[in-house]
Every structure is written in structure tokens, then in C-alpha cells.
Write a structure and sequence with these properties.
Layout (H helix, E strand, L loop, with lengths): L2 H20 L17 E7 L10 E4 L2 E11 L4 E7 L10 E6 L6 E6 L15 E3 L4 E2 L4 H13 L2 H15 L3 H20 L1 H20 L1 H7 L2 H20 L6 H4 L3 H42 L20 H8 L4
Parallel strand pairs: 1-7, 2-6, 5-8
Antiparallel strand pairs: 1-4, 2-3, 3-4, 5-6
Length: 331
């Protein structure tokens, strides 16, 4: 074999080796951890999956239950094929979402169990699909950057900074804050010590509300059309009365005389009270005079002579004829 033939043979062998290495995929290499080779397949439909890596983990309640085995784009959604642990049952109403454990962490598929009060659903059979209505895709990176640009460019950060500066300006100094805190603590302590008065106030308010509720028909009458007419007439009457009052005795300009007048009226009332008490003390004596002396004499006008004694001391009442002669009743 010539030198040229040997060189050609070496080049052919090198090209064959390079072509065989190019057919090797990184994803086909064995990865550490459980690969769930004996698991079953589930397909999940997402609007978008961003940069979901191959062999991404699938979690349920924070526990790894499977891995992503393939991602394929279709007309209006993306099919994410997963391999799930055969010991795990996934209900048919499970919700799937794409999440990140950290800001710079890899995206993974998180399965969420249905609410506790939802009815039980059958488990998904191998090869089943979770429709797009039960999945949540992360926001587009472009949308996130656009919102962040709006936040920065709209002056929101400047307004937040100005707000903080304004709060710092109106915040009192530490001594004033300490005094306010001490006063607030004192007020709270007084409130706790007088909570019974607060209870009385609340009970009074509740009773007042109950009285108003019991008299709701009267209040409804007051605020009805007829009641409004009554309030209008009462207002007119009060207006005339209020205009007439100042003209009586020049109350506004010379009302100083009212105080002496009231004192004189009080003294007069006291004198009448004393006279009443004196009269009441004399009433029994006057009653005895009229009932024991005047009224009997007025009813029976007669004089009963029980004894007549002469100048010499002799009893003359025994001789009726002499007595009558002395009185002039007989000749």
C-alpha cells in the first residue's frame, strides 16, 4: 500500500468516527437520579413552555413523581410528554403549571391536587392528556420585560421615592414618637381600667337603637310626605316665635334684669312656702275652734244653766220660779 492510500484510509476512518459522535445526543446519556423507566406516560397541553429543559422534573405536592421525556409544538399549543411513577395516581381534574424554584432555577412541571371540597375524580390512565384548560403557562419573557420597562419608564420608582421622602418629612422625631407611644399606652390602660363604662355606653347605644327600632313607624311618619309638611309648619311657627321673643323685655339688650327677677321670684316662693308651713301648723287649732265650739253653738243656740250662786253665796238654781222671776220670764 502506498503512502497516499494509507493517508486516504486514515481520513476515511476519522470521518466515520466524527459522524458516529455527531449522532450521540446529550439527552440520550444516562442522568443521575430516578428515570422512571417503568412509569406510564401522560401528555400535558400548554400555551407555551418557554425554555423547559428536557428531562425536567415533574412534582406532586413537592415530591418528584416523574420527568419530562419530550416537548412537541402543535398548531395552537405545546405537547409536553411526561413519564410518571407507576405508584402515583394522578386525578383527572389535576391542574398542571410551569414553575421555578428560584429566579435563575430551571423550569419544572408542578401538578396541583384538586380542592378538598371537590368531588373525587378517576385517575388518569396511561397515555391520557391533561387539556390546556387545566394548565397554566408562565408569562412571556417579553411581556415581563415590557412591564418592567413600563414600571421604570413611567416614573413609578420616582414617585415611590418621593412618597418615602414625604413620609420621612412628616414623621415626628424620636422623642415625639416616644411621647405619643407613652400617651397611647396610657389611654389604652385607662380604657382597659374603665371597660365597664364602655360596656355601659355600648348597652345604652344598643337600648337606644332598640327604642328607635320599636318606634320605627313613628319615625317613618315623621319622614313621610305628611311629616315633612308638619316639619315645615313647625319651622314657620318657630321662626315667628323666635322673632317675637327678643322683643319681649329687650332680652338681647337688657336681659341683665332677668337674674334679679329670678332671685326675687325665688325669695317670694320661699316666703310662700314658709307661710304655707305656718298656716298648716295653725289649721288644727282653727279646726278645733270651729268643730268643738262654734259649729255646735251655731247648730243648737241655747244656754244651759247648771248653777246660780247669789251674792250671799246661796245656791239659787233649786228654786226655778225665783230664777225665772230674776230673769224676767215670769212676773
Amino acid at each position: 500500500m502506498t503512502r497516499t492510500a494509507k493517508l486516504i484510509a486514515v481520513m476515511v476512518a476519522a470521518m466515520a468516527a466524527v459522524s458516529s459522535c455527531a449522532s450521540v445526543d446529550v439527552n440520550s446519556l444516562p442522568a443521575p437520579g430516578n428515570s422512571f423507566q417503568d412509569g406510564y406516560t401522560l401528555v400535558m397541553e400548554f400555551d407555551n413552555v418557554l425554555n423547559l429543559p428536557a428531562r425536567a422534573k415533574v412534582t406532586l405536592d413537592g415530591i418528584n413523581v416523574g420527568i419530562v421525556t419530550g416537548v412537541a409544538a402543535t398548531g395552537n399549543h405545546v405537547n409536553v410528554t411526561t413519564r410518571i411513577d407507576p405508584a402515583v395516581s394522578v386525578p383527572s381534574n389535576t391542574h398542571a403549571s410551569l414553575q421555578q424554584a428560584t429566579v435563575l432555577g430551571d423550569i419544572y412541571v408542578a401538578l396541583g391536587r384538586p380542592a378538598d371540597d371537590s368531588p373525587a375524580s378517576p385517575r388518569l390512565a396511561p397515555g391520557s392528556r391533561i387539556p390546556i384548560t387545566q394548565t397554566s403557562s408562565p408569562p412571556q419573557l417579553e411581556d415581563t420585560i415590557a412591564h418592567l420597562a413600563d414600571l421604570v419608564g413611567s416614573g413609578s420608582l420616582q414617585r415611590i421615592q418621593n412618597t418615602i421622602i414625604g413620609i420621612n418629612r412628616i414623621t415626628p422625631p424620636p422623642n415625639a414618637i416616644r411621647e405619643i407611644s407613652s400617651r397611647f399606652a396610657t389611654d389604652i390602660s385607662d380604657l382597659s381600667n374603665n371597660i365597664d363604662n364602655v360596656d355601659l355606653l355600648l348597652n345604652g347605644t344598643a337600648q337606644t337603637a332598640q327604642v328607635l327600632n320599636n318606634r320605627a313607624p313613628i319615625l317613618d311618619t315623621w319622614f313621610s310626605t305628611q311629616g315633612m309638611h308638619g316639619w315645615t309648619h313647625a319651622y314657620d311657627l318657630y321662626q315667628y316665635t323666635g322673632t317675637a321673643y327678643p322683643s319681649v323685655g329687650s332680652i338681647y339688650s337688657g336681659g341683665y334684669w332677668i337674674v334679679p327677677l329670678l332671685k326675687s321670684l325665688a325669695d317670694a316662693a320661699g316666703a310662700i312656702q314658709q307661710s304655707k308651713w305656718a298656716f298648716e301648723s295653725e289649721v288644727p287649732q282653727w279646726r278645733k275652734l270651729f268643730t268643738d265650739y262654734f259649729l255646735p253653738q251655731d247648730k243648737y243656740p241655747a244656754i244651759n244653766i247648771t248653777s246660780i250662786v247669789g251674792p250671799d253665796g246661796r245656791e239659787l238654781s233649786g228654786n226655778v220660779q225665783d230664777v225665772l222671776r230674776i230673769l224676767g220670764a215670769v212676773p
